[in-house]
Amino acid sequence: MEVRRLAWAGLEISAGGGRIVIDLVEDFSRTHGDDAGGETPRPPAQGSIDAGLLTHLHSDHSDVEALERVLRADAPVFRPEEGTGSGDEIALVKRSESAFAGSGLSTRIVRPWETLEVGPFEVTAVPAVDGFGDPQVSWSVAAEGCRVLHAGDTLFHGWWWSIATRRGPFDAVFLPAGGAVAEFSSRQPPSPLPAGMDPQQAAVAAKLLGARLVVPIHYGPLHETPTYVQAHDPPGSLCASAREQGVEARVLSPGESLRL
Question: Domains of the chain by range and CATH?
Fold first, then answer.
């Protein structure tokens, strides 16, 4: 298995002649008013991807136009259930939901602990908790004797042990480490607590998952005071915390690959 880090939280995973993407985003203007600060690596080739997986439908994790370009004909998009409510309750997912409804993509809602086969891949949605109350899952991906976990931008939660028991052991876990405190108009009053795991929490989660290796994701140049303020030095802090937990850590730059 080869895992290539894309921009922000995105991954491209190759194994056994198959290729999938998780949280592929190429256009960041919808969320932060600019690109990803120059961090966007070479994108997957057009029509080269067998399936797209989404942890949730916030615009920094869901890019319908990018998926339309990279997915082969009739390739599925696996996603969590739709958000419910109206107005501000669905404000953070409304645009992506509308884009999917108007696209020709084949989407399928996948619920926690549901497992699907995609070519050489076995993909399982596992529980996660979104920092703004929108539906989210994490993804366990297995192929060719290797297994990884992608955890979107989940909060720290109590399902780590069950995930490890049911889907482990993991060769590598890709965990959010930005620990951003966010202030959005649709989520008022704002919370002073991080809306996703910070580096220390990610290191503990990796320990509880029994992971051989932890790789930080969901951090970088998308930092916009006062609406989105990340923790100080997420990759460096995660590596230091992982050492304290006895877990190996590795930082991948956007575009860099890990072979398992």
Answer: 2-259 (3.60.15.10)
Quote the CA–CA distance of 114 and 126 in Å, as a whole number: 8
- Give the three-state DSSP class for 86: coil
CA geometry: angle at 253 spanning 250 and 255, to 5°?
Answer: 125
* Backbone dihedral region for residue 98 (phi beyond 0: left; psi -120 to 50: alpha; all else: beta): alpha
Which tokens belong to 186?
């649709």
Residues 6+ apart with CB under 8 A from 147: 140, 141, 167, 168, 169, 170, 171
Mode of pairing for the β-strands spanning 18-22 and 51-53: parallel
Q: What is the pLDDT of residues 17-35, one digit of tens each?
A: 999 999 999 988 766 555 5
Dihedral (CA of 34, 36, 39, 45) sign: negative
pTM of this prediction exceeds 0.85 = yes
- How sure is the predictor about 40, in pLDDT bands with cuts at 50, 70 and 90? confident
